[in-house]
């Protein structure tokens, strides 16, 4: 698999109906919001988690598509495996092992990790704990997603019909609560650097096949992430600007400005569905070397 040779910048839209797209553990799991604007937020970490879960679900049994940041993974075990698979004896200093002084051996450890784990090839990783396997910057970077309009989270009371202990059988059933966003359309920006994928010494090797799989994950990951807490979440748009070169042919900010969203119902009522918005992309007079792709 050859590494990608083009830079990509993309705009990603998704929405939620009667669900909590990304709860904040520091706020009782309330949906994340910008306190100044009340616009909803979804972290980059949350989106990457869903991509990882999709890759694990669809390609988890295939060589080269392991997930490094998997649930309950013990990362140092994986680092140690990279040493043993390469036949390199760790040189311990206290509880930690330095990278080999031989640069080729050091690179081989990091390369092994990139070759075996999709999320390292895509997002990078710091693998310098205990058995040091180096660190790499991933070619894919995502920013926080933000809702197009302010959201008004609701706290919904719920009851549980069952009890946990025998002594509670005659007591009132347990009361609880959950938070939902009635509706929110979120916009996220992403960046893919080909140079961080194809650099002979520091590149992760993120390939064309990996890229196709990543686009597929963004399109389908919510369909395999259903839960009562998240309600209906749906991918609504993926607008990609492909650059002719690996370093890029135009500033990402200028390209993103071409993607505009307006309320199709004016301001008559709060948006309650994707149909209440109109997404337009200005494809006229694109900068030289830029190709527009609408994948969703």
Give the arrangement of secondary structure elements:
Layout: E1 8-19, E2 23-24, E3 30-31, E4 39-42, H1 44-59, H2 75-86, E5 92-93, E6 96-97, H3 103-116, H4 118-123, E7 124-126, E8 135-137, E9 140-142, E10 145-150, E11 154-159, E12 175-192, H5 195-198, H6 208-220, E13 232-243, H7 252-256, E14 259-263, E15 277-281, E16 290-294
Antiparallel strand pairs: 1-12, 1-13, 2-3, 4-10, 5-6, 7-8, 9-12, 10-12, 11-12, 13-16, 14-15
Describe this structure in words.
- This protein has one domain.
- Helix content is 24%, strand content 30%.
- The protein contains seven helices and 16 strands.
- Helix 1 packs across helix 6 and helix 2 packs across helix 3.
- The model has no long low-confidence stretch (mean pLDDT 91).
Give the radius of gyration: 22 Å
Number of beta-strand segments: 16
Label the structural class. Answer: alpha+beta
Question: In percent, how much strand structure appears in the residues?
Answer: 25-35%
The major beta sheet can be summarized as: 8 strands, antiparallel
Low confidence ranges = none
Query: How many helical elements?
Result: 7
Q: Count the domains.
A: 1
Helical content stands at: 10-25%
The secondary-structure element order is EEEEHHEEHHEEEEEEHHEHEEE
Mean pLDDT equals 91
Report the principal-axis shape.
flat
Distance between the termini: 25 Å
């Amino acid at each position: 698999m050859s590494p990608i040779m083009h830079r990509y910048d993309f705009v990603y839209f998704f929405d939620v109906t009667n669900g909590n797209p990304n709860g904040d553990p520091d706020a009782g799991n309330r949906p994340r919001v910008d306190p100044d604007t009340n616009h909803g937020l979804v972290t980059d970490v949350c989106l990457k988690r869903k991509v990882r879960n999709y890759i694990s679900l669809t390609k988890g049994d295939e060589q080269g598509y392991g997930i490094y940041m998997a649930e309950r993974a013990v990362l140092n075990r994986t680092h140690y495996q990279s040493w043993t698979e390469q036949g390199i004896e760790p040189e311990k200093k206290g509880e930690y092992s330095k990278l080999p002084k031989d640069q080729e051996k050091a690179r081989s450890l990091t390369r092994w990790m990139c070759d075996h784990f999709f999320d390292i090839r895509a997002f990078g990783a710091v693998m310098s704990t205990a058995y040091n396997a180096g660190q790499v910057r991933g070619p894919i970077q995502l920013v926080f997603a933000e809702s197009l309009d302010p959201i008004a989270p609701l706290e919904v009371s719920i009851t549980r019909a069952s009890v946990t202990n025998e002594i509670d059988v005659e007591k009132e059933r347990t009361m609880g609560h959950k938070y939902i966003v009635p509706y929110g359309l979120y916009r996220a920006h992403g960046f893919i650097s080909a140079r961080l994928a194809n650099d002979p010494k520091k590149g992760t090797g993120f390939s064309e096949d990996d890229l196709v799989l990543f686009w597929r994950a963004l399109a389908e990951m919510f369909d395999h992430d259903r839960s009562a807490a998240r309600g209906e979440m749906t991918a609504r748009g993926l607008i990609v600007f492909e650059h002719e070169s690996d370093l890029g042919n135009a500033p990402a900010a200028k390209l993103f400005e071409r993607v505009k969203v307006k309320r199709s119902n004016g301001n008559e009522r709060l948006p309650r569905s994707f149909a209440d918005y109109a997404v337009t992309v200005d494809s006229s007079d694109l900068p030289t070397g830029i190709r527009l792709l609408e994948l969703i």
